[in-house]
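A reminder before we start the practical. When you read a complex entry, don't treat the lines as separate problems. The point of joint prediction is that each chain is placed relative to the others, so the output describes one connected object in space. Small molecules and nucleic acid strands, if listed, are placed in the same frame. In the example below there are two entries. Take a minute to note the order of the lines before looking further.
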Amino acid sequence: MPRDTLDRQVNNIKDEVLILGNMIEQATLLSVDTLKNRDIRAAHELIEDDQLINDKRFAIENAVLILIATQQPIAHDLRILTAILEVSTELERMGDYAKGICKITIKMGESDIPIPIRDLVKMAELAVTMLHKGLSAFVNENLHLAQSIPLEDDNVDALYHKVYRHVVEVITANPAIFDEAHLLLWVAHNLERLADRVTNICERTVFIATGEMMEMDSTDDEDQED
Amino acid sequence: MTENKNQPIITVKDLSIFYKTFRAVKNVDLEIFENKITAIIGPSGCGKSTVLRSFNRMNDFIPGASIQGNILFHDKNIYDEDVDPVQVRRMIGMVFQKPNPFPKSIYENIAWGAKMNGYSGNMDDLVEKTLQDAALWDEVKDELNKNALSLSGGQQQRLCIARALAVKPEIILMDEPCSALDPIATLKIEDLMRELSHNYSIIIVTHNMQQAARASDMTAFFTMDEDRAGVMVEYGLTTQIFTNPKNKQTEDYITGRFG
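Here is the predicted structure of the whole assembly.
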């Protein structure tokens, strides 16, 4: 079939996107584990490993640029490749969120303030599940799945608000620990933003399949640009 | 497209090509790598077809043509006096711009060259194998006795490729092989080139730099110097040439700003 070379190389890049996604999933779950276990050494290691995520993202970007320069993709092919550029950027930022959580683990040190770790672990699991499904929908161009995933973001948002209330209660009870307690909000925030970025990936999936740019993030009214 | 370059199968050393006293190409140094597709691109008159034809001594047929320098094929200069040009052309086959099948049956087009080269094996097997290798068998297997000129342009060009393969060359030279074909037939030839590159080395001259970008592993960019001699400006991995050329002239040419 004509364009075997292009098709084969696009599939190779999609595989690399899945590998990058898997790196993010692992990094996210492990970052919350460092907080749970107060494991500062593991947190430092994960921060170092973020470089591998950045390298993979640039490798994907480079492969896409080469394909655009050499294979003249148009229409659906071009939408896939530009979407991959967008998605790899989203994934790289998700990696930064995991790195940010590790930095908080380090800052918290031996502090004994009560951490709502079950809720944070749950948030991480929900966000990672969304990401996994989101990338599966993306590489398989599964429009139906892509449209359903953003609905799951409400569960992550609900947990974010729960952690928020917890932190407010902790600070109210003991204002002296404000600085440490407020760091916990950033952990929840990072996980919540990760899930938001899955919605962006789903938007790109719709774009590939239909050519339409569509906002799917209707429930998220926080216009944050972190 | 892999980035490892394999071994050089042709090494060009300080090659200049003359038509009588006019120097058409000057001072080219180039290594062609085994099992790779090498594209030669450049504006009209830059000597790219002249260079291609020098690789199998097709320029011998042009009165007044001569060369300086060396073209080593497996370390042997193909212009040495003890080299038989017919033998060179058997090892280094050529496919031309316009499909040029013989006005004979499809079968005869393949069998003729093989017979001339003393092939003594089963001819039916050879015809089938080469037509399969040229991705034409499925389309013509029930009409092998049909005149080759009744095929479409794309089919005729694949038949010419099959004919070149029938004498078991190591290198296939292609001079603008798709310029007479429509876009789909062109893409079929490019896919065929990719398949063939597993067993052959391919050198293609093309005016269509998008084709060079799509289909090749290595790209050589030629241009015309002030004295109107063709010169090689840049040679490298196709991915590098088309994303980050080192030379400004190359960049201007591939971005359509010159030539």
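Discuss with your neighbour: The CA atoms of residues 111 and 180 of chain A lie 8 Å apart. What might explain this?
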